Amino acid sequence: MIEDLLARVQPFQVGLTTQFRSVNxxxxxxxxxxHGIGEWAPFADYGPAAAAKWLAAALEAADxxxxxxxxxxxxxxxxxxxxxxxxxxSWAADLIxxxxxNTLKIKVGxxxxxxxxxxxxxxxxxxxxxxxxxxSYRATxxxxxxxxxxxxxxxxxxxxxxTLAECKAVKGNGVLIAVxxxxxxxxxLTDELLTEIIDAADIAVLKPIPLGGSxxxxxxxxxxxxxxxxSGSLDTSIGLSFVAYVAALLPTEPLPSGLGTxxxxxxxxxxxxxxxxxxxxxxxxxxxDEQLLAEATARISSVELAELTQRLIAAAEYLEEVQL
Length: 324
Known about the structure:
The protein has 324 residues and is of the alpha/beta class. The protein is built from 13 helices and 13 strands. It is globular and about 55 Å long.
């Protein structure tokens, strides 16, 4: 598997227009296959077990024929980084005017969080707002903040606390609780853990690439039986196209989903970036732009490439082992 894999990958590095969760670029491999192209770009702090799931998803995108989908477009939400209030309002205005997005997810968990949310709500009273705390609150702090968010008509808070017990403790304070990291970072999604997730959450955030592809995502959605948000993982349009495809496989339409993140990219790898149009993402196959990929490959240093290759080999070895 490993020799075959290394023979059909090409590295890339693309920049981001703004720092996002301490990341200012994305680095990974494009995988070429008989049914398309896949993207493998796990974050730098992910070990072989987590990176193997990203590889399984990338190999599915490249090597597996597409299944019958239930819909051809997915309603998207926009994402507002942790900017100062003025910049955040300007960013939100662009998302609404350029892409006609009616749901915005605002990053919170920092000192300016309430000012940012207040400013966006004041400017856009009719837009559905979500906030994403990435598990940054303790339960006592979260309860008070959630009440303040509720007063600003925030509909959903993603992962307010790091633990499911704390998320459960702050549930029912006027803002729906969505769980992301407790699902995505779980070592094993046991039946016991799924029960805890159902108790703690009103909504499940499912990210098909970190989960390992369409099958684990669809199985998890069925077992949880919660409303679902499907989300990308700061991918290029190659990865986002696969995520949109998985969202289209869900029998029940997902809530407005995190598919609008290509606006964060300084560069992309495809001929036409997967951007929202009239608030939706079209489900389509990505068409690689060879020139853009060559430029993205040239941005990677020899040291970075060696490290990335070793991480890919470790992920492939882990995937081979668990599939035996």
